[in-house]
Design goal:
Blueprint lengths: L1 E5 L6 H12 L3 E3 H11 L2 H10 L7 H12 L8 E4 L5 H13 L6 E6 L2 H10 E3 L6 E3 L26 H15 L1 H8 L3 E5 L4 H12 L5
Helix pairs in contact: 1-9, 2-3, 4-5, 6-7
Bound molecules: BIS(adenosine)-5'-pentaphosphate (AP5) and magnesium ion.
Length: 217
């Protein structure tokens, strides 16, 4: 099963993608997490991506597409995957479609996690991220068991550099301009599903599993 998560920054794509990955036993592939891991390790790719990310801008398609296609070609993606934060532009979506077509394959579901803009900024300021394993917490909604420490891998949690309020606003503008058109793109292909991301996260997840059903279990 191949799934794309759509939604504004902070809508809960990463939170839901991780839950889907755990339940259905498929990898959670987040381009944002891949970039952040590279920044943490100080790689050339990380340095290049950071310039864009810190300004709330998208990393250029050419670089992002290369990273993503490499990742999904790995063996663990053979039975499917859940993409979180990719595609983010129509050209990225077209490249993904073409790459899958060559393999006689396709995306099964594009799930849009819908949250109005005014709720986004509030969510972001409370988010704490693990840059080592990609886990996400929230100081009020999803506190870690031990304050400031990742439940999954024990690494110290941080406020992401791009979660400052002015950068969040820029990311929202970029989302509306470049990424939101993907909703119509996937609707026209007949694979779009929309869930209400304002519900508590377990309820959002229940709505998603009702859509995915037992197909991949
Ligand atoms: P990326 O890492 O993808 O960031 P994003 O899209 O801005 O999304 P976020 O990770 O901020 O939010 P999310 O929807 O995953 O929400 P989360 O689950 O954490 O990308 C970062 C940057 O990398 C981009 O700006 C760009 O520069 C670059 N990039 C990445 N991919 C790219 C691409 N394809 N092309 C070009 N550039 C790319 O939830 C948010 C918070 O809310 C958490 O604290 C969570 O605990 C809480 N929460 C979640 N669900 C709920 C709920 N139902 N109720 C209450 N709280 C909730
Ligand atoms: Mg995320």
């Amino acid at each position: 099963m191949k799934i794309i998560m759509l939604g504004a920054p902070g809508a809960g794509k990463g939170t839901q993608a991780q839950m889907i990955a755990d339940k259905y036993g498929i990898p959670h592939v987040s381009t944002g997490d891949i970039f952040r891991a590279n920044i943490k390790e100080g790689t050339a790719l990380g340095m290049e991506a950071k310039e864009y990310m810190d300004q709330g801008l998208l990393v250029p398609d050419e670089l992002t597409v290369r990273i993503l296609l490499d990742r999904v070609a790995r063996e663990d993606c053979g039975d499917g995957y859940v993409l979180d934060g990719f595609p983010r532009t129509i050209p990225q979506a077209n490249v993904l479609d073409e790459a899958l077509e060559k393999l006689g394959d396709k995306i099964d579901y594009a799930i849009d996690v819908d949250v109005p803009d005014d709720n986004i900024v509030r969510r972001m300021s409370g988010r704490r991220a693990c840059l080592a394993c990609g886990a996400t917490f929230h100081i009020e909604n999803v506190p870690p068991k031990k304050e400031g420490i990742c439940d999954r891998c024990g690494t110290e949690l941080v406020l992401r550099d791009d979660d400052r309020e002015e950068t969040v606003q820029k990311r929202l503008d970029v989302y509306h301009e470049q990424t939101q058109p993907l909703i119509e793109f996937y609707r026209s292909k007949g694979i779009l599903e929309v869930v209400d991301g304002m519900k508590p996260m377990q309820e959002v997840f229940a709505d998603i599993t009702a859509i995915l059903g037992t197909a991949a279990e």
